[in-house]
Amino acid sequence: MRLDVISLAPEAFSPLAGLGVIGRAFAAGIAELHCHNPREYALDRYRKVDDEPYGGGAGMVLKPEPIYAAFEAIPVAEPRRVLLMSPQGQPLRQADLQRWASTYSQLVFLCGHYEGFDERIRPLADEEVSIGDFVLTGGELPAMVIINGVVRLLKGTVGTAASLEEESHSSLLLEHPHYTRPANFRGQEVPEVLRSGDHGAIARWRADQQQQRTQNRRPDLYAKWLDREKDMGQG
Predict the structure, then answer these.
(1) Which residues are within 8 A (CB) of 160 and not within 5 positions of it... i.e. 6 or more apart?
(2) Where in the chain is the domain with CATH 1.10.1270.20?
(3) pTM for the whole thing?
(4) Rg, C-alpha atoms of the chain
(5) Which residues face 129 on adjacent strands?
(6) Contacts of 207 (CB under 8 A, 6+ apart)
(7) Cβ distance 10 to 35 under 8 Å?
(8) Choices 3.40.1280.10, 3.30.450.40, 1.10.510.10, 3.20.20.70: CATH for 2-151
(9) What is 146-161 written as a DSSP string?
(10) Considering Cα of 5, then 9, then 10, then 16, what sign does the dihedral take?
């Protein structure tokens, strides 16, 4: 997968190259990351990429010309999806990461700064994405979150593909508890069922724990899961 980032702080993405399995995925050619600084496409000798907003107000706004020029210089690898990082975007979900990882050969990230984008930049994007109801100084961290989440889903990144299917949010339910040796740590025992060797009982225990944990910690997800189970039962 080809990943292209338009950012005023391309150096922010350098640590991804050394980030565990994500870094190894880049080294192995499973994914490739390209960063593009709009300043290199600015039209004046000062490499100006922002300006005062029409109508007045605090802060500066990213100009459309450098962003468009940077965007149009990126090679296209179809199918492609362009994502604009914005607190006004749709909340990021695991299903989005799975959809992008399985459907597209290229993702392009538009990272904002200052007070935001000139509104005429938004039509470049296929989707606007938010990682939460808060505001950061730029779109770099949200883009890195998405890159991490997508690359780990690409074939060959994670050694055991089955582990991706059982983790939190893959099926709306949160993941069940995990234990390893020792069986007793400071008086905390590993559940007996996990030591029983009864794989059917273990599967039932894990499914029950998923439901209980989701109901207690994320009742909103649990309600969605119940609705989906009901619909599937009627289908």
Answers:
(1) none
(2) 166-234
(3) 0.88
(4) 22
(5) 90
(6) 176
(7) yes
(8) 3.40.1280.10
(9) HHHHHHTTSTTTSS-T
(10) negative
C-beta of residue 67 within 8 angstroms of C-beta of residue 42: no
Encode pLDDT of 48-74 as tens digits: 999 999 999 889 999 999 999 999 999
DSSP H helices, 136-218, are 140-151, 162-165, 199-217
DSSP 138: B
Statement: residue 196 has pLDDT above 90: yes
Question: Hey, what amino acid is at 3?
Answer: L
Q: Which amino acid is at 14?
A: S
**The two three-digit tokens of residue 190, written as one number:** 């590993």
Determine the length of the chain: 235
Query: Was domain 166-234 assigned CATH 1.10.1270.20?
Result: yes
In the numeric block, the tokens 């039509």 are attached to 123
Under 8 Å CB-to-CB from 80, ≥6 apart: which residues?
104, 105, 106, 107, 108
CA torsion through residues 27, 31, 33, 34, sign: positive
